[in-house]
Every structure is written in C-alpha cells, then in structure tokens.
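Fold sample X.
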Amino acid sequence: MLYDTLENLCAYSALSPRLARAFRFLAENDFSSLPDGCLELDGQDVYASLSTYETRLINDKPEAHRKYIDVQFLLSGSEKVGVAPLSVMKEEVSGDEQGDIWFYRGPTEPLTLGGGRVLVLWPQDAHAPCVAAGVPETVRKCVVKVRV
C-alpha cells in the first residue's frame, strides 16, 4: 500500500510504467470537464473509473482485487478507507473473478482520502472504501485500475 499526496506521486513512477501512466493521468487532467464513467488510458492495462456517490456510515466488507492495483483519488469531498493486509482477513465472503473483486470479513484501520491524498492498493491490500469522514456527503472519485 502507498499513501501519499498527488504532488509526490512522481517519486513512485519508477515502480512500473503502468503506474507511471496512472500517476500522470491524475496529475495532468482537469476532472471537472470529464464525465463519470470509464476511460481507457492503455486498453485494459490501465483505465480510469470516475464516479459520484454518497459516502456511508460503515463499510464492513473489505474488498481486494487480484488482477489490478487500485489508485484511488478523491476529486471532491473526503472519505475514510479502511485498510489492512489481506492476510489478516478472517473470511472470504464472496468473489467475482470476472469483476476482479473479492469481499472479506476482518478488521481494518481508517485512512482519510481527500485534500490531495492518493491511496495505491495492491492485491495484498484489503480495503473498505466509501465511508463518511464525519457525516455522509457526496464525493467524486477517480479510481485508476492498473493491471498487475
């Protein structure tokens, strides 16, 4: 897992060309002109998903992905994301191989997204996003999916 600010992401570009592509996309775009939905950046190797939603009070089903790294960045608002190593999850609840998402039960620790912070989650990182940082609010998020 990587938790840093958008302005520092260039320091991590050497990790992989695909991650570098995702970081450039976040740093160089005016998201106010982009609608919600999916945008291919490099076919299925790197693509972005923009969405607007209401945060909720709890998310007790952490998730993880096996084929993709998540690069999560809030464009507006703030939210908590519970994070933990996948190894501490107590139970796999369900999974969808086609959608590359598996849900678990287990403890997480909250990190705050918003204010320019970026969260990068590898397949070994369980995460429970979309939790209100106080009272529920409408947020807009960009998640760049990077094939492992």
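Fold sample Y, listed below.
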Amino acid sequence: MQSPTIELSEFQTRAMEVPESCDLFLGGGRGGGKSYLMALMIVRHVEQYGERARVLFVRKSYRGIADFELVCREVFGKIYGTGARYNGGEHVWRFPNGAYLELGQIETFADYDKYQGRSFTMLMADEAGQYADPALLDMLRSNLRGPKDMPIRCVVAANPGGVGHHWLSKRYVFRAEPWAPFYEDKSERTWVYAPSTFSGNTFIDQREYTKQLRAACPEDPELLRAWVEGDWTVNRGAYFAGCLDEKRNAVENWDAIPEGWRTYLAHDFGSAAPSATYVFAISPGEEIGGRFYPRDSAVLVDELATCKKDNLNSGLGWTVPDLAGQIKAMCARWKVPPRGVADDACFARSGHSTGSIADEFREFGVFFEPARKADRITGWNRMRKLLSQAGMPDRPGLYIARRCRYFWETVPTLARDDRKIEDLDSDGPDHGADAVRYGVLRMDRRVSIEPLRL
C-alpha cells in the first residue's frame, strides 16, 4: 500500500478523533467535507479490521450513490492505487486485505429485502434528511453485527432543511452540545453530534461555492441559512425561522440558578393534549459560564412536558394532581417556589367542586395567576423580539437550555397560519410555545407572584 499524505480540515480531524464506540451524526451545512470524511472513516475501518470489515453505505437513490462513488475513487486511489477494485454492476469495493464496502440504495421497505439476513460491521447513511421518517434506517441497524472484539458503528450524515429535518433534529441535534456524547434511546447507543460548515472547509473555493448556494435558493433565505450555517432551527415557512437560532438561543444545561435571579413558572395546561411547564430565570445582568445575560434576559432552565413519545401533539392524560406533583418536584430540584402564570383557560369555572383548574392546582400546592391580558399576536411579537435579541450585549434576550427537549423538538418547526400570516398555526404542537409566550408576557410586570427563593 502507498503512503500518501492526506490533509484534513479541523472538522474532519475532530470527527476522526471521536472514539469508535460512539456513533456519529454528521449534521452540518453543505460543503463541510462530510462525504470525504466518511470515505476516510471507511479506510480506517478497513485497515483496522481487515477481512472482517464489512461496510454498508446507503443513500435513497442510485443517483446519489454515484456522487459518493466519485469521492471513493479519489480517496481510495490515493491510498491503494489500483489495489482497491470496484465492481460498478454490484456497487461493491473490494480491498487488498479482503475488506468489503457496498454502496447501497434503500428507498422503500421492499428495498430492504436486499439486505435482510446479511451482516455489516459499519453502517453509513448519507443524505438522511431525504427520509421523511427513520423507519428504514432503524431497520438497517439490525444488520450491524460483528465479533466481540470488533466495534460496530453507525454514521449518519444530513443537512438541515430536508423532509427529515424534524426527526433528525429531535434525535441528534438538541440532545447535547456539539461534540458531547449523549445516549440515544432508540438505538441504545452513545452518539456524538458533529456539525460542520463549508466555511471550515479550506479545500474548496468558498467564494464560488457561496455563489452557487445563493443561486440554488434565491427566494428562500431560510434554506440558504440552513445550507450555509448548518442551523437546525431553520425550517422553511416556520413561524420563528427569522428569530430563533440554535447558536444564539441554545445554552448549556445549568446545575443551579444563581442567586439574585428572579424565577417563576410558565404553564400551558393539557390532558388529552400535552401540558408544558417552564422554569423562567430572569437575569439581573450577569455572566454565567462565559456568556453574558443582559438585565431582564430570560433563561428557560428546565421544562416538564407531558406528550407521548412518538406524538408531540398528544398528551399523556395526566390529571391536575399528577401534574402538580411533578411540577413541585421540578421546582424542588431548582429550589424555587411552585408559582407562576398559566393560560386564561385554567381560571375558567369548570363546574365541579374545585371551581377551576387553577383552584385545583392551588389545592395541591401549585399557585398560578393569569398571564397578562394580551392578544396572541402581541405575545408572539414580544417572544420573537426577545429571541432575536439573544446574544446582544446590551439588549435582553430569550435563551433556552438544551434540556428543554420539547421546546427544541417543536418550536423551531411550528408553521405560520396560512389564513393569518402574523399568527402561528395552532393545529401544530404549539403547547410549549404557548407556555413560553405566557412567561414572556409575565416578564413585563411585577406582581404578587414574585417568588422568594426556598
């Protein structure tokens, strides 16, 4: 085998350093060098495990496979010369040490028949955003099998903005800080989210590539931002697309709320529909963890959301006693009183002995007052303004901890109302957004629920 010199970008180097025991989600924008990186990872796997290495690389279409085939020819040619042989009819690479790489296509469940009963030691799924749901890729994981002394691995690559944007961001992006390992329930594996952008890829003509991206979506600035910045809060037509930015608004999880910060709850009630409750912390003007929060900035430090695992718009049927107990437990963890604001519907007389939902909460030790009287548009505009001001050194902003998973799984992709463009479409899973809206309106006043610290 030849000994060529192969230069790597900072992103590629960092991704190669992630332990093989971790699966990888390569989730940056376009042109970040993900395909070249995947080819290099294949080479390393082949060299480490020899004839036992069996790699499956999949895309949705054979046309997509042709793009990666060219990358393989370049990379494998540099390393093996003519030693690595490609059978174009079978889409199979065979390496000098007996290792095997198959470039496969899978679009429907019928396509899975080609792989059923076969074993692979590494699975790579490229352009995963083309899949509307993860069912096919999840099924392929059953083909990952290897000897005890040989790690198996899954690598998934995607750009934001595709049809699979929602499930990819839910599974991989908003689970932890980039490059920080996290446990993913479905696969029962440890994953690392490795983002990249073309601005970090010094091996391409960045100026010319920018022109091509702009030309590809001249009337879709949000999609352009997704491609250029790799921002997973971008969603075409999304209500908060112009003001919610993962890089500015998402903050690391806190362990405690600093002294001197005002705190309160913001709650949207639901039983058949989800319920959402947030712990708001209002900054006195202070730097925490290297980030400065101007005075009156709000940080959502935690949430309690009651939705079904596979349906973000369906509740768990919890009663007020159930919710009150969990809300008090969350407040105890943060050492804050269980007091705050809730939607006006909580204060309507319900006709049973407790009087209203708010009265029933009070019986169980959780105290809500109505959110400030205002129409929906006023609340949304206030929320959008605070989101857009996040990161400014002299303006209050709205920041959300990454542990607030229901927020990050729903709010970035909520759609506008087609009939009333300045409003949000309430048919979507807007329960977290509603709760935050109530909390944002609460920021503009000082009332009796101003809590004292426990």
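Sample Y note: Residues 62-80 form the longest helix (19 residues).
Also: Residues 446-454 have pLDDT under 50 and may be disordered.
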